[in-house]
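Dear colleague,

Thank you for sharing your sequence with our group. We've completed the structure prediction you requested, and as agreed, I am returning the results in plain text so they can be pasted directly into your records. Please verify that the sequence below matches your submission; if there's any discrepancy, let me know and we will rerun it promptly.
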Amino acid sequence: MKIAVECDCLLLDASVRLFLGSRISPKSDCDFIVCDRVIASQKPIFVLGSDVAVPFTSEGLDAALNSFERNLRLVKNRGELESKIDKLVEKFKFDLINLIRNER
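Please find the predicted structure tokens below.
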């Protein structure tokens, strides 16, 4: 799990960085961003105070981040599954139409 940190509050920023240690990465390489406000980003946002209560412990933050990451993976996997199903349905539809046309 690669996480970028972008907090306005210096105390929250320092705490999160201390708790995350080696999991911190640049925004361009991260899986998601931890911040203390909602920001516009192409990456998923984990908001302190919303996704985890403030103040938080290292263990509480870690559990909330793991849950957040699991949910992100589930959503991604669901999207991939839906895409595979859509392709199969389209192929079936194409084959069925061709079969009906050839029977005439």
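Summary note from our side: The chain has two helices and three strands.

Kind regards,
the structure core
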